[in-house]
Amino acid sequence: xxxxxxxxxxxxxxxxxxxxxxxxxxxxxxxxxxxxxxxxxxxxxxxxxxxxxxxxxxxxxxxxxxxxxxxxxxxxxxxxxxxxxxxxxxxxxxxxxxxxxxxxxxxxxxxxxxxxxxxxxxxxxxxxxxxxxxxxxxxxxxxxxxxxxxxxxxxxxxxxxxxxxxxxxxxxxxx
Amino acid sequence: xxxxxxxxxxxxxxxxxxxxxxxxxxxxxxxxxxxxxxxxxxxxxxxxxxxxxxxxxxxxxxxxxxxxxxxxxxxxxxxxxxxxxxxxxxxxxxxxxxxxxxxxxxxxxxxxxxxxxxxxxxxxxxxxxxxxxxxxxxxxxxxxxxxxxxxxxxxxxxxxxxxxxxxxxxxx
Lengths: 175, 172
Hints:
The complex is a heterodimer of chains A (about 180) and B (about 170). Chain A is an alpha/beta fold.
């Protein structure tokens, strides 16, 4: 039998992020690769609606939302909250990106992102990844301590680097 | 990048040569609204035809309720108009419907939208964000023409290659 811990993927820069398969905030079956859809992406794991640090970080992502929506970039947020709770939280935030729900913690176990110090909620440990369209990890941020989370400027730098690498017309075509 | 659109028409008579077609009725009165048809071909089937996301086409699709938003003849708005941008943001922020696609005939102009609803989504169809931009009709459409499409991922509201009807975003 395979040791599930030993079989976990490396979630460091340069590794491939697993193609998560989870319901979204509306209960639709989704995959991470489908949501990334060929674009640079910010993949965020958060504890839950109740955590004040997550609420503060979401305000940061909301400030980035208007840029992402015109820059062909994706944002995906993942927690253990079920779809009805997630849909209400998302609507209250005013977020327009897709939230994924892992109430059974199946993908949490696969990627090894359980916050072991919270035995009440068993949430995801806060983490942020910037991904290339093929789910290669460009950068990984450990958000257990709030200051480990990326600033919007760091996210902009990551998304710029990924976009530059994948868009053959980064240098605008000339006549 | 491959194109992924087809033509949509709503005409009085059963269309000959359409890839899929079904009768339509006014959702409020039950009166006939003609035939809604999708055409998977490059050539425009009629002057009134508009491009929609090709994934809407499903010959096995169940009957559906539809919000069809169309401008009056001769009227259209740029896709970059703030009203059109905000309507797309509102669509992304709300619970998804079975399918949604903007209508267009060129690379820059918004010329309406179609939203497909079934089940619990039908009640929400009355508040279609695109209906704040142009007039709309609420229709019932028969089986065999409209399918379901994965909800847009967001937050992107731009279109790829400009000639693509939003929210076509390269889902498999």
